[in-house]
Amino acid sequence: MKSILRLTLNGRAREDLVPDNMLLLDYLREVTNLTGTKQGCDGGECGACTVLVDDRPRLACSTLAHQVAGKKVETVESLATQGTISKLQAAFHEKLGTQCGFCTPGMLMASEALLRKNPNPNRDQIKDALAGNLCRCTGYVKIIESVEVAAKARCSCQEAAE
Predict the structure, then answer these.
(1) What span, in angstroms and rounded, lies between the C-alpha atoms of 88 and 148?
(2) pLDDT-derived band of residue 107, with 50, 70 and 90 as boundaries?
(3) What is the Cα 52 distance to its own chain's centre?
(4) What pLDDT does residue 47 have?
(5) Most buried one in 50, 69, 135, 152, CB count within 10 A?
(6) Where along the chain do its domains lie?
(7) CATH architecture of 87-161
(8) What number is the average pLDDT over the span 69-89?
(9) What topology does CATH give the domain 2-78?
(10) Which residues contact 146 (CB under 8 A, 6 or more apart)?
(11) Helices 104-117 & 123-130, crossing angle to 10 degrees?
């Protein structure tokens, strides 16, 4: 069966007719054409498909699309605004937190969730936040450093605004 799915996706209200058994990952990639969310392990173990649902990280490969009805869903595409990458994305670029790039969308979204909740995390808090995201290329050091740089950049901007 199919039914109407209503949600806010990357800041915009959407209504789509989708199968009741469609995964959020498939909805994002096939219906909305947002392909930044990656299909990795297909079993909820790698974190490549991490998106934010009401500001909390969630695995799109193990979530039915209809489970997010009425909620705010954000994908990696939401991080850049008006063609400008976010401070978090810039930090991943500058500190070489991206190698092959496959895990990067999930790492970015898990990091974004952390920095919204805790703008100044320590290294252990960063490790905890990223624990569900696997990377085969970097050894995590550059990813953790990227999050640290992004946190400092965000704090500097917030202090300057005050």
Answers:
(1) 9
(2) very high
(3) 6
(4) 97
(5) 50
(6) 2-78, 87-161
(7) Orthogonal Bundle (1.10)
(8) 97
(9) Ubiquitin-like (UB roll) (3.10.20)
(10) 88, 91, 92, 94, 95, 96, 97, 111
(11) 130
